[in-house]
Every structure is written in C-alpha cells, then in structure tokens.
Amino acid sequence: YGKNTIKxxxxxREGKKHFVKEVEVCTHIRLTSAQEYLEENNSLVIPTDTIKxxxxxxxxxxxxxxxxxxxxxxxxxxMTTFYQVAYVKAYVQEVPWQRLHENGVPHTHSFxxxxxxxxxxxxxxxxNGPLLVFAGIKDLKLMKTTQSGFExxxxxxxxxxxxxxxxxxCGELFCKWSYxxxxxxxxxxxxYTNKIRECILEAFSGPPDSGEYSPSYQKTVNRIQMxxxxxxxxxxxxxxxxxxxxxxxxxxKNLGLTNDKEVLIPVETPYGxxxxxxxxxxxxxx
Length: 286
Description:
It is an enzyme of class 1 (oxidoreductase). There is one protein chain. The protein is an alpha+beta fold. It has 7 helices and 12 strands. It has helices at residues 35-38, 48-62, 67-81, 187-192, 196-205, 217-231, 281-285; strands spanning 2-14, 17-31, 85-94, 97-102, 105-113, 118-126, 131-144, 169-181, 237-244, 246-249, 264-267, 273-279. It has an 8-stranded antiparallel beta sheet. Helix 5 (196-205) runs antiparallel to helix 6 (217-231). It starts with a strand and ends with a helix.
C-alpha cells in the first residue's frame, strides 16, 4: 500500500539564479506482516499521510539532485527507519519545465513548460536485497510524414488493410530502461551527456536531410532500442511501447478537389500498439 500522486514544486535558489523541479511521486511499501489484513491489527501500519509527509520532508532537507537519487533517498529512508518495512518502491516523474532564454541569454528565474516527453524513474529496494533503479521517458509524441511504409504482411480473408509504401508514421512512445543493481551512477550525466532522448529521436527520424525508411512500427522500435544499447553502456534492459496514431486521407472528390495526402484526420480508436523488451545477453543470462 502507499500514497499516489504526491505533487509538489521544489525551488532551489543560488543567489539570483533559481532552479525548479516539479514532480509527482508515488511511494508504496510492503510490510513484514499482513496482520492488518488478517487480524484487524494496525499496530505496524504506517499511515499513507505519514508516507506523504516523509516524501515532502526529504525534498525539503535533501533537495532533488536527480530524479533517480530522490527515488533512492525515499527507498533508503523507509528501509532504514521502519523495521517492519520489507519492500519499498518509489516512482518519480518530472514536469518538463525548461529555463527561458532571451537572445541566447538564460533567464535567472523564468521557465516554460515544454511538452516534449516526461522523464520518470523508479527505485526498488527489498530488505537484504539489491537496490534496483529504472528510468524512462513517456508521453513523447513523434511523427514523420514520409519514409515509412507497411508492405508484405500476412493476408487472409479478413484482411482489408492496403499495402502502403509511403505513409505518415506517428506514435506516442513509452520507453523504460533498467540500470540493474545501482552502482552510484551519475544519472543526470547519463540523461544529458549520453542523450538518451536524442538517441530515440535519431533512431525514429534518421538523418535530417534524408531520413531513414521504416518498414514497420516494429523495426522502428528495434532501432530505438539498439541505438540506446550501443551508445549507453549503463543501460541493461530496455522496454519500448509505441502506440500508433493513424491518420486517414480525406476524400474530397465530392468537393471538386484532389487531396494528395495534404489534409488528413486522426483515427482516435482503435489504435495499434507495438511492445518490445530487449536486453544485453550477459544481463539476461544472469
């Protein structure tokens, strides 16, 4: 049990320059006993309001150096403070605030919320067990208007989908990876220097002047995973979910117009989804 959707803004000041982290935290714990379920005995139960207050106190005392470190701090606090806690999991996601720039000069205290994907992380800790850390990005919408098709697929009497060699490829992406047993990584350095988000964009789009042909959503997902695994050695296993967003060309013949893929409408439901988990052989064998 635990507390979901603990939302707050952490403001850090260094002279005139301000830094912000707005996050949403979910913290769940499992106790060594189930007596509150079986015996109507609440003596070991930590109230969820207490869980919420602990998260806020940790944010005030320690700040949020990285999302991953904050999730680790939450896990370690519950495990070291409460003898009755057998397992703790902390999920942290960040609101995408970016510092404003005026004529290339960063503003000291103004920010803009940019919807270019939400960074998140998870940490898990069992008593007498390893600390596991996961990270990811979600709600990242991507589109390319050509260099995509879908041909040569299996057909039977129920198949109505036509083959296409040129189509709009659009989807909402969820990407989550595992660092395995945490080894005191510099998580922000991995995120910004290795540029995992940029790897996703590069694998999806291809070179800026020519692109790269995608024969399927599945192949695009694989390219994303392979590029991240080849560029970021700390990533051990990576899961990608690409929810397809379809667009249909509007027939404008009755309006006396020819619509050469210039006006399209989104197909809300149903939508396809492609999911794949890929990992390093040595990690999976372990």
